[in-house]
Structures are given as structure tokens and as C-alpha cells.
Amino acid sequence: MLIGLMVTISLVVASLFIGVYDLNSEGGREMFFITRVPRTLALILAGASMAVVGLIMQLMTQNRFVEPSTTGTIEWAGLGLILTYIFFPQPSLFLRMVVAIIFAMIGTIIFFAFLQRVALKSSLVVPIVGLMLGAVVGAVSTFVALQTDMLQNLGIWFAGSFTGVTRGRYELLWIVAATTILVYFIADRFTVAGLGQEIATSVGLNYRAVMIVGISIVAVTTGVVSVVVGALPFLGLVVPNLVSMFRGDNLRSNLPWVVMVGIVVITLTDIIGRTLIMPFEIPVSMILGVLGATVFVYLIVRKGRRG
């Protein structure tokens, strides 16, 4: 744990000082607090919260392949953002956040409602259902964007990046810090709910209430991160699976590790994106997509070998 903490702190410190702008030049100190510090704080908050959300969704569905980008939740938030720009040409950050959260919640509820009606709930069918729902919603968003000449806005949103995160544009992410702390206090309930409705109910847990709280946390976190940063695919898939490989499945004891590994993964991918083709940047979503797809295939192969 101590080594992991030191690695995390080292990457966070490195993130503060990596970039095109020379901090020793005139105005460098101001730029440090306007861009570098907010960007690093955004990396910490977004990485930790999305990793925790992925773990919650995997517990609620009892499936290791589930997270916001494999359930269509992110695509629903994107649809909400596009519709916001259509009906309110210059929406405030707060309005975009509220609409994105509402649509993310609708999408998550539809996924769980649809899941309850699927007879075959194998580990592969569940994410496939989510990916199909997400593809349909994504297609609707693209069609709406084409009809309203907002395809460029949609492309910018899908290319999740921390490039535009500056002071005054990241503060909403403190909301997801609150939801992550809330998860820690009710972690035991999510762990019991992850055993299934029958077992959870038999030990006196209000299963429906826990599910509603879980869906709300997923929607709020996904909506806020989508508005500030954009889409961060597969982060919630990669991190919980990496942690469970060496820590097991206890949510409470794993939470600090999930938070820490989430920060490490998002910070590392952001540093790679900033340095690989300097002075230009590769969006974090692109690197996460490659990493997540690789882990996704590995998990499928690993599960196939184990039968």
C-alpha cells in the first residue's frame, strides 16, 4: 500500500510539471495555478470516481464486464448534452450537468430494467446488451447532431480530454468526490447487494433502496465527469478488475486501492497523451479505449480458459 501510494504521489507531482508551457517563463506561476493544478485535480477526481462507479456497477450486476461505457450510460449523458445545446444555445455548466445527470440516470434505469427481462444473464450477454443499447443511443445522438450541425461538438465530447480543464471549469468535479466518500460509508450494503436479491433480502437488506442509491451515484458521477472532461471509456472496467486480481472482491477493503489505481491509470494515460507527440496531445479517451479493449479481450480469454 505504501509503495502504491508513493507511485501515485509521484505521478501526480509529475503531472503538475509536464506540459508545453514553460513555467519559468513570464506568467508561468499564474499559468501553473490556472491550468496545471486544476488539470491534476481533475485527473485525481475523475479517475478515482469513475473507477469506483465501475466497481459499484459490477457489484450490482454481478458482472465484471459492466461499467458506464458498456451499459450505455455515457452515451445517454452525451445525448443529454446535445439536446441541451439544441434547446439552450448557450447553456451554463450547471445546466449541462443537470441534464447530463438526468439522462445518465434514465439510461442506467433502462439498462437495469432491460437486464431484468433478459432470460440469459451470462457474463458476456450482459455487457453485449449494454453495448447495443449504447450503440443505439450513440446513433441517435449522431443523427441529431448531423441534423443540427453539431457533429463537431459531439466529436469533441467523445474525445474525452483534460486539455480544456482550467480554473473555473473543473470545480463541479468536487461533487464526485462527495459521491465517492458516500460509497465508502455504504460499501457494506453494496457488497451484500452484490450477492444477489434473494440473499440480500434474506439478511434484512432493503435491496431496492440500495439499487436506487447505486444508480443515483452512477448517474451523478457519470453526468458530472462527462460535462467537465468528456467520455472516459473502460476506466471503470480496467481498474476494478486489476484490483480484484490481487485483492479479491470485498468492496470496503478494495475501495482505497480502486481509488489509488484509478488515479494512477488516468494520470499515466494523460501523461502519455501529453508527451507522445509533443507539442500536440492525444486525447485520454483514445488511450483508454486501446487499454480498455485489450483488458476486455484478456478477461474474455481468461474466463474462457477457466470455463
Structural overview:
There is one protein chain. By secondary structure, the protein is mostly helical. Helix content is 74%, strand content 0%. It has 13 helices and no strands. The chain starts with a helix and ends with a helix. The mean pLDDT is 82.
User: DSSP strand (E) fraction?
Assistant: under 5%
Q: Which outline best applies?
A: globular
Q: What's the alpha carbon Rg, rounded to whole Å? A: 19 Å
Largest sheet: none
Oligomerization status of the protein chains:
single chain
Extended strand count: 0
Q: Which stretches are poorly predicted, pLDDT < 50 over at least 5 residues?
A: none
Structure class: mainly alpha
Distance between the terminal alpha carbons, to the nearest Å? 32 Å
Can you count the helices? Answer: 13
Order of helices and strands: HHHHHHHHHHHHH
Give the mean pLDDT. Answer: 82
Helix content: over 70%
Outline the secondary-structure elements.
Elements: H1 2-17, H2 28-61, H3 73-87, H4 93-116, H5 125-147, H6 151-158, H7 174-185, H8 187-193, H9 197-202, H10 207-228, H11 235-247, H12 251-275, H13 284-306
Helix pairs in contact: 1-2, 1-12, 2-7, 2-10, 2-11, 2-12, 3-4, 3-5, 3-10, 4-10, 5-6, 7-10, 11-12
